[in-house]
Amino acid sequence: MTTAARVREVIALLKRKGTKRNRDGLARYGIVATKVIGVSVGELKQIGKQIGRDHDLALALWKTGWYDARMLVPFIDDPAKVTPAQMERWAKDFDNWAVCDALCFHLFDRTPHTWQKINDWSRRREEFVKRAAFALIAGVALHDKKAPDAPFLRALKLIEREAPDDRNFVKKGVSWGLRVLGRRNRALNKAAVEVSRRLVASPKPAAAWIGRDAFRELTSPMVQRRLR
Q1: How many angstroms separate the CA atoms of 77 and 79, rounded?
Q2: CA-to-CA distance for 55 and 34, rounded, in angstroms?
Q3: Does residue 141 belong to any structural domain of this protein?
Q4: CA 112 to centroid of chain Cα atoms
Q5: pLDDT tens for residues 179-196?
Q6: Neighbours of 186 (CB within 10 A)
Q7: Pseudo-torsion of CA 165, 169, 175, 176, nearest 10°?
Q8: Confidence class of residue 174 from pLDDT cuts 50, 70 and 90?
Q9: Nearest C-alpha neighbor of 90 from the set 50, 123, 41, 126
Q10: Which residue range(s) make up the domain with 191?
Q11: What is 72-135 written as a DSSP string?
């Protein structure tokens, strides 16, 4: 079967699985998308398992522009075949936090290009591209068990630098990255708590909010017990 035929097959399957309830539910979570079928993330994960890894199919599904197809591709694309150019093309298409986070947390953080994109995207102006940098920090902090502390310590500098950005999805992304990084081990927790303290004292409202959000979680008894 050709890739084009497989795309038609997958879109037809998604349309059988989609519901009005799921379509209407996107707005409750602040997800804005123009082409929506209405398939739940749980269903998309199951479909992804059925399809398996298929890089060419993932590229073709992304081009359809369907929100649900783009939410499916992290579960079928092959991280080893993802290129920096592909990451850039897809990042430019980000138009909501859900697609951004799904790509970063289930695919991009497993590529060899992760840290370069974190550095590059943290400086970008586009709201969801910038958010992607910090979603990647959260993803790699949680998933790459063998990574040394050094790149995460450098990431703390990016977090502190960009914390004043008061756009909603950037602010929440920075907080997410800081909190997950600070739960990784005791040394990173200590460093993240220090950054949180400085942010709390910032005159910038977004930075202070991020600092309070992270400090509360990272110093909580539950997190401290787990780290011990």
Answers
A1: 6
A2: 25
A3: yes
A4: 16
A5: 999 999 999 999 999 999
A6: 10
A7: -150
A8: very high
A9: 126
A10: 112-228
A11: HGGGTS-GGG--HHHHHHHHHH--SHHHHHHHHHHTGGGSTTHHHHHHHHTT--SHHHHHHHHH
Residues contacting residue 30 through CB under 8 Å, at least 6 positions apart: 96, 97
Q: 26: which DSSP letter?
A: G
d(CA 187, CA 128): 30
How many other CB atoms are there within 10 angstroms of residue 227's CB atom? 16
Give the number of residues written for the chain.
228
d(CA 176, CA 168): 12
Total structural domains within the chain: 1
Q: Determine contact, residues 77/60, Cβ cutoff 8 Å.
A: no
Q: Is residue 199, in this structure, part of any structural domain at all? A: yes
Amino acid symbol at 114: T
Q: Please list, in sequence order, all residues whose beta carbon lies within 8 angstroms of the beta carbon of residue 53, skipping any fewer than 6 positions away.
A: 76, 77, 78
Q: State both tokens at 98.
A: 């859900």
Residue 23 belongs to a domain: no
Terminal CA-CA length for the chain: 54
CATH number at residue 133: 1.25.40
Q: What is the mean pLDDT of the chain?
A: 97
117, 151 contact by CB (below 8 A) = no
Token couple for 174? 């920075």
This prediction's pTM: 0.95
Residue 162, pLDDT score:
98
151, two tokens: 């790149």
In a domain, 89, yes or no: no
